[in-house]
């Protein structure tokens, strides 16, 4: 479900139990799917359509938001990596981080530059890729060179015949001479709530590779490949390390944006919450309800629902979590939320949970509201 659909389902359940309730719906995102749309709508901007290359080569219809167009002609474009190179664009049985590329994200950035935007806000959550952002950089004119000085191609057509590992193995030198010159006059802010470095046990491949289809051996190979890329960046003098928080986001695209495009990282959740008016609308609320597909050990590391809960509590408003599923230490949930439950009604497979998600969320919201009403009755 989109953030808007989630809000609508929660409202439906709440009003079933309490028709007099006042519900303020606030669709949010944290740098992943839906960030561009949420930010664009919150800022009263307009959405521009574009067609780019998907992670495995199929054409994808996507777009970007223009949220600022002032008298001097300055424009701010908002775009999602997930809409061009996202995991939701690939059927689960076809997920393969050895073949997936961020090339379409580079094309989307070019489209935003073509619109005249010189300030970009890029959400980089929800990727299907582990290419260190080289597909994106390749589309923008950057190149990795092999021993013969020949450019290494990161387009899907090439990766269909080879793999990321073979590409990285050839890399000797990084070349910025052909980069789009407009990038030098462009300010880029990355909406990201991932703090992982590029490499190692907490890096892009180890932490996020498995959900993109990588087995243990593939994880090791991908980490070795990204290490080779990092060495090329260091050798060229662009950076002295690939250990900054967020470098491991989107399969290393965070590092590519920071090192090669001079991007600054910001909390995606807080950025969207600010533009959406969360901090004004929380005033006077009795309860905040938030949620996500899977709540696990990564949630506390800056995921949207944990940030919503934290900021709600700061405002003196309790926070409830309605999650697709709960994993990990249950007691840890209550360090973040005042109430937490899975909306699953006993489905035996992920496909069934996805199919019945909206129905289950309506029921969970109604159930929560009934519990609140019961508490008030007992208190009397």
Short précis:
The protein is α/β, with parallel strands linked by helices. It is 39% helix and 15% strand. It contains 16 helices and eleven strands.
Structure report:
The chain has 2 domains: 3-26 and 285-374, 3-Layer(aba) Sandwich (Rossmann fold); 35-268, Glycerate kinase, domain 2. 39% of the residues lie in helices and 15% in strands. It has 16 helices and 11 strands. The chain has helices at residues 3-17, 35-42, 82-85, 103-114, 134-139, 156-159, 164-170, 204-208, 216-236, 253-261, 268-276, 278-281, 304-314, 330-333, 350-355, 357-379; strands spanning 46-53, 59-69, 75-80, 119-123, 143-145, 173-175, 187-191, 264-266, 288-290, 319-323, 339-342. It has a 6-stranded mixed beta sheet with strand order 1-2-3-4-7-8, with helices on both faces. A 3-stranded parallel beta sheet has the order 9-10-11, with helices on both faces. The longest helix is centred in the C-terminal third of the chain and has 23 residues, at 357-379. It is globular, with a radius of gyration of 22 Å.
